[in-house]
Design brief:
The structure is a single chain. The protein has about 260 residues and is α/β, with parallel strands linked by helices. About 45% of the residues lie in helices and about 15% in strands. The protein is built from 9 helices and 7 strands. Strands 3-2-1-4-5-6-7 form a 7-stranded parallel beta sheet, with helices on both faces. Strand 1, helix 2 and strand 2 form a beta-alpha-beta unit. The longest helix has 29 residues.
């Protein structure tokens, strides 16, 4: 996010906040069934925006669909007639190019091409030295965290280019800009996200922007897998989501290629 010399990064000015509250957005979020993705989806729906969400857990998607409808109904700016079927959630595996292609086809058919895409789906290896990480586990991290984003870009960037507008947010990590022991596959994948984002930023035409965004240290299932019980000392996804939503909604062409932190 761009900021004036007197405005902290991520803190919206009065003008930018007016833009957020006054403009309806359609936001696509991958990995939406839990953690950061779910919290962000519910926060955006509460603000009156339309959410397109995907994950691999159908049971959790069913629950999320009901939760999205409930928070949308509580928004006075959303008439009851507009709440039903406002949001779209789909069972999608971002590791599969054909699965992402089906998602893209569905949003085109429903004329719900996203204004913003948040590539949030991600996973981490169990704490282990690299030589002890099973091959299948390493592949899952790479296929989800890197190839998953590439598949989304392959099918959705052309749609944004056709509309001459759009913002893509690739969720990164502090470990995509530093490193830690026993999570080498995860660190490698997030360093790749940073490099991929900067490279794609140089390929996009005017009107479309891409950024990498580190959420900060949040008490999610992934953090618990690394930190154990000490993960509870950090903020919850629900506490993180309002600030993250405001920041994401205010991104513009001026941020293209940036590495940001909530």
């Amino acid at each position: 996010m761009t900021a004036s010399p007197t405005t902290p990064l991520g803190a919206p000015t009065t003008t930018s906040m007016a833009r957020v509250t006054g403009t309806h957005r359609t936001v696509l979020i991958t990995g939406v069934s839990r953690g950061l993705g779910k919290a962000l989806a519910l926060e955006l729906a509460k603000r009156g925006h339309t959410v397109i969400g995907c994950s691999r857990s159908q049971d959790k998607l069913n629950s999320l669909q009901a939760d999205l409808a409930a928070v949308s109904s509580s928004n006075p700016s959303s008439p009851a007639s507009a709440v039903q079927n406002k949001h779209l959630v789909m069972n999608v595996d971002v590791r599969s190019d054909s699965s992402v292609q089906d998602l893209a086809r569905s949003v085109v058919e429903k004329k719900s091409i996203p204004d913003i895409i948040v590539n949030n789906a991600g996973t981490i290896n169990r704490n282990n030295k690299i030589w002890d990480v099973p091959v299948e586990e390493f592949d899952t991290v790479i296929d989800t965290n890197i190839k998953g984003i590439a598949n989304m870009l392959r099918h959705f960037v052309p749609l944004m280019i056709e509309r001459k507008q759009g913002v893509i947010v690739n969720m990164s990590s502090g470990w995509g800009r530093s490193a830690a022991a026993q999570v080498a596959p995860y660190c490698a994948s997030k360093w790749a996200v940073e490099g991929l984002t900067r490279s794609v930023a140089k390929e996009l035409p005017v009107g479309v922007a891409i950024v990498s965004l580190s959420p900060g240290v949040i008490n999610t299932d992934m953090l618990q897998s690394c930190f154990g019980s000490s993960a509870s000392f950090y903020q919850t996804p629900e506490a993180w989501a309002p600030r993250a939503a405001t920041m994401i909604l205010n991104l513009s062409m001026a941020d293209n290629g940036a590495s940001l932190t909530v």
